[in-house]
Amino acid sequence: MKITMEHIRAGGGCAGGLREFFKRYNLDLNAFIRDGYIDSEKVLKTSDALAVRIVNIAKEQENGR
Question: CA distances (Å), 46 to each of 63, 64, 65, in order?
């Protein structure tokens, strides 16, 4: 599943936090900006509580809740 900035904002994330998150977990921020998404599996592998919350929000939105 694709995680977008819309999902990140819905989960309480912001641009500054996004940059820090990508840096902390050695993820490619430039690819996220270029492509407009990151795969949920990459996000979940971090085990970061906010990241897991954001993935769950994306799942709920995908399921129409």
Answer: 24, 26, 25
